[in-house]
Here is the input.
Amino acid sequence: MSLPIYVCRNGDLIPAEEARVSIFNPALYTAFGVYESIQCEGGVIFHLEDHLERLARSACLLDMPLPADLKTIASWIPPLLQANRSPTCLIRLYVLGPNGREPALAFVWPEAPRSFSRALYEVGATAALYYGARALPQAKSLNTLVNFLARRHAQAMGAHEGLLAHDGYIYEGASSNLFAVRGGRIVTPPEETVLSGVTREIVLRLAREHGIPISFELLPEADIPLWDEAFITSTSRHVMPLVRINGQPIGSGKVGPVTRCLMEAFEAYYRDYLRKHPPVVT
Here is the structure.
């Protein structure tokens, strides 16, 4: 049976077919809500606390209460995974804001884990620019229209990811953070201009540990020909190299040494994390 079998609604397990939202819920047209996607492998949830803290920050930016404290929300997840018999999955956590008739509603469910072709890591992925900006970029809100349009544009162009660009700068991917490499230095947009992912923060820490210098600067679209390398990060992708944007090669058009170093460092960190943390479900 495909996932999910059960969904958690504010702490209560319900059959997936009963997980419904009224068409009169204002969240459908205001996007008043926040969400997270969290990786789970072998029953070990990867950086759950960091994801929940970002959920709380996003809700704070929207001046939106959560239905429970973070410790309580975390406690809902193990029985959900057990009921769905899904120790390896992608955990979806969506919270709809209160609307005057109902309190805030949190829905949590597991999905099949995302997987990507090895070629995207060995040969590199491609991206296409999409001209649009996310509202409240630091908040992971339900307003994902521009993300959807960027992904659709990338697919139409035969590219893996859409990159959001406006006012002459490139900021982030439709579902990823963006890094360029110039002269051995990583360049990535300042945190206040993008949605800083959990994976992004880990990669920045690993870069410092490996002595790779980092600059937090806006990325001018006109500077793409000056990049030596580029890569994107996200929950499911981890670290994925970019070798072309809009059909034009980045640097040599091949996976570069800084990107490869961070790919290997992240995978080593990820496997070590899984070994050191006990599973919440088997």
About this structure: The chain has a mean pLDDT of 97. The radius of gyration is 19 Å. The helical segments are 27-30, 48-61, 70-84, 118-122, 145-156, 198-209, 257-276. The chain has seven helices and 16 strands.
